[in-house]
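Narrative progress, year one. The postdoctoral researcher (J.K.) led the effort to move from monomer predictions toward full complexes, under supervision of the PI. The following entry was the first complex the group processed end to end, covering 743 residues in total.
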Amino acid sequence: MAESLLTGNLMGCYEMSGNGVLDETPKCSFGGERPMTNLFARTKLLESKIDEFLNHTSEVGLLFREALKNFLDGRVAEFEERRGKVSDLENHADELRREVERQLYIETLIPESRGDVLGLLEQTDDVINRVKLALMQVSVENPQIPAELGDGYLELADYGSRAVQELVMGARAFFRNTSAVPDYVHKVAFWEKEADKVAERLKRRIFEMDIDLSQKIQLGNFVMHVDSVADQAEDVSERLSISTIKRSI
Amino acid sequence: MILLFLSSGLFLGWSLGANDAANVFGTAVATRMVRFRTAAITSGLFVIVGAVLAGGGATRTLGQLGSVNAMAGAFMVALAAALAVLWMTRAGLPVSVSQAIIGGIIGWNLFTGSPTDIDSLVKIVSTWVICPLLSGVFAAGLYVLARAATVRSRMHLLAEDALTRAVLIAVGAFGAFSLGANNIANVMGVFVSAIPASSVHLLGFLHVSSDQQLFALGGIAIAVGIFTYSHRVMMTVGKGLFRLTPMTGLVVILSESLVLFLFASELLESWLISHGLPSIPLVPVSSSQAVIGAVIGIALVKGGRNLDLRLIRRIAGGWVATPVIAALVAFFGLFFLQNVFDLPVHRPVSYELSEVGMERLQEHGVHDEGLAELEGAVFETGRELSSALKEKTSLGMIDREVVVECARKERFVVTLKRIETLDLTLLTVGQIRALRELSGREFGYSWELESTLAAESDHWAMLPDTRDNHLANKRLRTNLRQLLDAFRTADTND
C-alpha cells in the first residue's frame, strides 16, 4: 500500500517518518483546500468510479459462469472471447481502484472509513483476480472433463457467481444504506456454503472414478480454483460486515 | 502603562484561545475532517467578529457581579484566572476561563470588602449546571435527528463526508462567533470598568466604543492563542474524551455553539421577550462544560457504554476547584500587589447613609428602626456597612444589599466635555438635552444622578416594570451605566 502511494506525482507529498510509517498528511497543497462546490463535484466523480468498479466486479462474476459453460459445451472460441473480456475488465478495475485510492488519500476524504473502503476495494479486486486465474488455468491446462462432472462444475461456478452478485450489492449498500448490508452478507455466506458442499461432492466423485491419478489431481485442482471465487467473496463480505458495524457506532 | 496591566488579560485571552476555542473545532480537526490551518483561520476570524459585535450582553452580567475598578486589581484578577486555567490544563482537565474569572472576581471582592452581587452570582453559577445539561439535551436530540436523516437520505458515504466537512466549517464558524460573543466577557470584562472611556471614530463614520476596542484587542489575543497552542488541545478534546465519528463530532460542535449563542445573544433575548417567552440570562458560560455535556448526551443515547464515569467525576471536580483556586490566587496576589508594589488594586469607595438616601430607602419600602442609628456614619467598605446592618437592624439579605448599594458614595461630575465622549448614537435627542442641562453639576451617589436625570426628562425615567417595557428599561440601564462610567471621578474626597 505504502509502496504504491509513493509513485508518480505523489512522490514527495507523503513522508516516511523515522520508524518507516507513512505520514498520512500530504505535505503538498494540491487538493484539500479547494472551493467547496468543487469538492462536491469531485466527490460525485469519485462515487461514479467506485460504482463503475463494482459494475465490473458484477460483470466478471456473470462472465465467469458463462465462460465456464462455453468451455464445458466445447465452444472454445466463445470461452476465449469471454476470458479476454474478463482480462480487460480486470485491468480497468485495477486502474479504477488505484485512482480511487489515490484520490481518497490526496484529499484526505472519509478519514474514519478510508482504511475500510480501501480494504474493501482491494479485496474485491482479488475476487476478480480469482476469476481471471481460474479461467486462465482452464485455458492453459485445457482439462479433459468427464461428461458426468460437467453439471457439478457448472453448479459450482453458478454459486460462485451468485456469491459475487450478492457481495456487490452488499458493497453498494455499505456506501448508501448500511442497514441493508447484513442481508447481503448473509446471502454471500449462504452461497459460499452451497459451493463448498458441491466442491466436496465433486472431489469425492473425481477420486472414486477410474482415471489416472494425475487427471484426478488436475480435476481436483480445477475444483479448488472454481470454488475459490465464492471463498474470496465470503472473505470480503465478512470484512464488509465488520466495517459496517464500525460505521454504525 | 495600560498595556502592561492589560497584559494579564491578553494572557487570559491567549489561554481562552488555546483551550476554549479548541473545543469548537477540536472534534473536526482530530477526526481529520478539517485541517488545522482552516480551523484556526476560521475560528480566529469569527471569534474577533463575535467579540466586537456581540460581546456586550454577557459582559454586563459579569460587570454586575463586582466591578473591579482599578487597573492593578483587574490585572491581578485576570492573572489569577489565567493561572488557574493553565494549572488545570496541565492536569489535563478541560476547564474554561468562565469558571476561573468568576473565582478571580470573588477573590477581588473578598480582598477589597466589596459586596458580591448575589443575584448575578446565582445566575452565573446556575448556568454551570444548566449549560452542560442543555448542551447534553441538544446533542442527544440532534444526534437522533442526524442519525435518522442519514439513514433516510441514503446518501453516499462520500457525499455524506463532503457535506459533513462543509457543515463542520459553517457550524465551527458559528461556534467561534458565539464563543467570542459569550466569552470575551471573561477576558476583557474586568477591564471594562477599570479603563477610562474614550471612543474613536474610524474613517469618520464608524463609531468604535471603548468597550469594542477592548474586545477587539481581546479577540486578537484569543486568535493568537488559537494559532499558537490550540492544536494539541484540539487533539485531546477530539480523541481523549470519547471516540467520536465525524458525524457525532459535528453534533457536539453544533450543540455547544447553540448553547454559547443562547447565553450571549441580545437579539435572541429581545425576540424572546417581545414574543412573551421567558428569556435566557446573558452570562458567560463555559465551552468546556458545553462540550462535555454534549459528549455525555450522545454517549447516553448510544446506551451509555464507553462512558468513563471516573473521568467525568474528575472533570466535574476540576470545575469546582478552578474558581476556588482562582479566588485564592487573586486574593493573595492582590495582597502582594498592594503591600509589596504599593499599587492601588481598587479605588476606595466609602459608604454613607445620607438623609436623602434614607428617604429613598423609605420610598423603596426598606425601613427598620435601627437604620436611623446608622445615618451619617461613614464605612470604608461595603462589608463593614453590611455587618453593621446585620448587627443593628433586622433587615434580610436582599434589603441589606439595597441599603449598601444606596450608601455607596462616589463622585460624579457632569461636564460638556465628558458628555461629548459618550456614544451619543445610543441616546435620544431628549436624553442629550437633559444631560446638557445638568452640565456643571456634581453628584455624590449614582442614584442621585439617575433620579435627577429622570426628573429632568421623561426620556431618562424607568418605565413600569412590565414585560413590554423590559427591553426599553434594559436599554436605559445600559445608557445609565455608560453615563456613570464617563462621569465618575476618581477622587471622592475632595
